[in-house]
Structure formats: C-alpha cells, structure tokens
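Supplementary Methods, section 5.1.

A reviewer requested that the exact input to the structure prediction be made available. We therefore reproduce it here, unchanged from the version used in the analyses.
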Amino acid sequence: MSEMNPEVYEVKCFGELPKMRPLSGPVPGSKSITNRALLLAAMANGTSTLRGCMASEDAKHFLECIRTLGFPVSEVQAAAEAGQGLSINRDVTITGFGGKIPQKKAEIYVGSAGTAARFLVAMLALSDGEYVVKSSEQMQKRPMQPLIDALTDAGAQVECLEEEGHFPMRIIGRGKVSENEADTALHFKVNIDQSSQFLSALLIAAGTLEQPAEIEVEGSHGLAYVDLTAQMLQSFGVDAEKEENDGKLAYRLPGNQHYRAGIYDVEADMSAAAYFYALAAVLGVRVAVNGVHKQMMQGDAAFLEVLRQMGCTISGGLFEQDLAVTGPEGGRLKGGFTIDMSAFSDQALTLAAIAPYADGPITITGIGHIRLQECDRIKAIVENLTALGIRVDEQDDAVTVYPGPMHGADIETYEDHRVAMAFALTGLRTEGVRILNPGCCKKTFAEYFTILDLILSRLQA
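The structure derived from this sequence is encoded token-by-token as follows.
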C-alpha cells in the first residue's frame, strides 16, 4: 500500500485461512522506553545517543518540547531502516546539563502524549523556572490531579488554567518558589490508580535532586511500567530503592545522584509487536517480529503468555533472532478463561478484538483505568464488538467477550490508535470490516497499516 485512505481502511478478509508459512515484520522502537530515554538523556550531564527511538507523533511532540526548553537535539533515520522506504525509527542525540533546564521560562505543547505530559510536568515542577504547558483536546480530558497534588505538596506551584486537574497549566518550579534545604529529605505521596505514569514521572524527575527523596505510593496499577522506569534509571546511573512493607510500597532515592550520558539502545515496541503476534493467532500462521526476544523489559511481553493459553506456540528469541508466534491450526483459539490485565492493559483491546474467535467466553478484568486513556476503551470494546454482532458483558473494570459469528461493520476508533490497530485483526476473518480514521495510528505507529498490508500480501503470494 503506497498511500492509505485517511478516512477508512478496508481490512483484507481471508475467506479460507492461508497455508502455514513463516512471516516477519518490523515495529517501531518502544514508546515507553523512547519517552523515558528522551527525558533521561535531557537530564543527564553530557551528550547521549539514543538508537532506535520511535518516530511517532508522540515522540515528535516530546522532542519539540525538549528543544523549546533549550536542549540541543538532532535526529537521523535509524541506520537499519535506511533505503527500506520506512521511517518508523530515529536515532536521537540529546545534550543534557546535569538536571538543569536551560530555558527558565517557556511555553510547551505536549499534544496527546500522556508520557510526555506527565514526565515533563514533573521535571518542570522540580526545576527553578516558570512554564506554561498546553496539550491537545484529547489530553485535556485525561487525569493529572494525583501528580499535581504530589508536586504541590513538595513545594511547586501548579495552576490549572481552565478545568481543575487538567491541562493547560502554569507551573512555577519549587526551586523558584523558595529556597530549599539541600539536606532536608523531600517526601512525595502519589496515587497511581489512574496511571502509573505519575509515579514514573516522579522517579525520573527526582533522580537529580541534591537532597534525599521518598515517594510513598498508593494503588498498584501498572507497576510493571514502574519497574521498567527503575531499570532505566539504573542504566543511566541513578538508583531508586524499592521498599515493600505490610502491603505498602515506597521508593527512596539517596540524593546527589547524576544521570550518566552515553549510548542507549531502545527495545522494539512490544505493544506494537502484539498486534502481529495476534495476527498469527487468528490466521493460524507463524509471525516473527524484528527485535523482539525473551528478555524484553516491557510489561506487554505478558501478552505472549495469553496467546500461549489460547493455543499458540512461542519460539525463538534470546539465542535465535526475533521471537515468533505460531497460531493453532485453523486459527482455533482456546477461550473459557478469566485474566487480570491490569499489568499490561494496552493489550486488553487486542485480546477483546480476537476473543470472538475463541471456543469459549473470555473475561478481561482489572482494566477500569482504560476508560481514562485516549478514549473510554471499555466503551470502544463494547460498542464495536456489538456492532459486529458479538455479545459483550460490561462491568466497571471488566468485559466478558463471547464467541460467535460476526458480520461486517465500520469500526469507530474514537481517535485512539490502539482501537484502530486491534480491530483490524477482527476483520482478518470477517468480511466487511472497515477501520474509520486509520490515520489516528500516527500517534505511535504511522506505518502500521502499511506493514500489515505487506505481511498479508505475503500470505497471498
């Protein structure tokens, strides 16, 4: 596909399942790791080179924010993609100034990038400058209050300019508000029931504080992503000690630490890879994804075990190049189970989109927070599957999807990239499925439908 219709994508349906054959495809660098690495490099002392960063709309906004704040940034197309006609990754060079922000007064625009929004707000609030942060209308609807509360309690001033707890906002860093005792421990308390990004933002921003810092945590959502953050802090030379006592979680940073500049390789995006692995499950073929292996840091790697439970075979990785998933013969997927996906909820849409092809109902729990992401994702699951003719039982934090015959329908994406990517998989075995506004995938993976078409064309060859 050389050009995609920006208004609708018609999914290629296989009336008869294709013959088994090995397939492979590329995905961008991890969104979660790219966004963390961009900020860590900006807070380091010296010049860092980040290889294989995701080249998405979110990353573009993040980089523009960093430039506006005065950090030198350069980008080149990732070497591995040169000459292949793809532009899904970038190698990025950033020069940091040891935790200091060059521009002491600026206005930035974070777009719809949740990670950029939360991470940058925390960094700015712990600085000695004054800033205005604006966002897209979509991001204005997403929660920020728990992070705002944690930062204001620590001495920053955060003023919401329109609706309380939401963008846009004016931030006066705690270093500008008052003189801070460098030897006095700083205490944060943050609730992560709505997003673990609040905690990750505090961990990264507190990494270069002169004084010790303690972060007391309420809630347990998305801790796999927090573990990823802690691993990356360590890769850049900063330690955050995790303490768990009597069910209470806290992180301690000793103070007077410094992020170390250097070369950092970004993992392939496991969230994006999951769509192509789910394709293997639905069509009963074998698909390998470039750069995915058995020791991925990202929490969405847990989706591989879900596919195994549904009858898929996992092979390769670690000592073999590129992990592969082989779907069960005839695409006969196993159902009849309940799974808590709170730790890897980005894949709740993916599982829901392929669940109608299972041999029993599948209940997905622990996902109440996905109502507050790019759209109400539980609503998107229910409305789109119902439009396809599938029974779905909805609860506040769960859905149960029942198997059954489907008919064609237009998939409403609600400007949510993950809705578009997930429901394209449903259409592989159901005639007449069309994805509305497929261009919303530019948020993280603009080339998704191009690569999907490339893989499907190989099945028809």
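The first helix runs from residue 31 to 43. These observations are discussed further in the main text.
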